Amino acid sequence: MKFERLHITAFVAFAALIWMVVLICQDTAIGLDHARPFSIVVSSLVSLGLLFEFVLWRQPFFHGWFFKRPDLRGTWRVEIHSSFVHPKTIERVPMIVCYMGVKQTLSTLKMHLMTPESESWLIADHLRASPNGNGFQVIGVYTNEPNIHLRDERISEMHQGAIIIETHGHSLRPTTLTAKYWTDRKTTGTMEFTERIKGICTRFVDAENEFGKRCAVEKKPQSLKES
What we know:
Layout: H1 5-25, H2 38-54, E1 74-82, E2 85-86, E3 91-92, E4 96-104, E5 109-114, E6 118-129, E7 136-146, E8 159-168, E9 176-183, E10 188-197, H3 204-219, H4 222-226
Antiparallel strand pairs: 1-4, 1-10, 2-3, 4-5, 5-6, 6-7, 7-8, 8-9, 9-10
């Protein structure tokens, strides 16, 4: 849940009311002048709330004691190993390279998986500390939507599934992720999130191009990089 200005105003008003009652019980004189800073206090708290929601939650200083939430933002390269058997070849599909775009704030997490033939989105999620004591888990339910021109060519219909994602590496900004999933098509699979870039892509072709550029830069000879 994300707190809006209305919620913060209600909390501050309730706190001020309790404060006023306590002061009255202590025979402390109270006048209208005491209520004048109310709007300033609310505006300050709203501004602070926005800072925490979009910026401060991912700062190393606050991580681990004030906020326990990994920073997963960016676009990940993903390798999928599925148990799905193609009905025409009667063979398991080969490993699929795809990409996951992640948008995140303190209170929201949006994951968008892009493959050459379909897209998936989280429709429910829960983030918690991993039971093994290292890193975090994202437990989610997702929906998958194949490209419309493929639905009549092969058995590739819309479906739903559940997924558990584990973080590895630095607890604030993990270096790799692993996942396992189950679908209502009675298939299962695993995922390896091997690397990521900062930008958030929304199409498979765009993500493929961005990672292609990154690989090209990394393969350049050292002399060309320095020049």
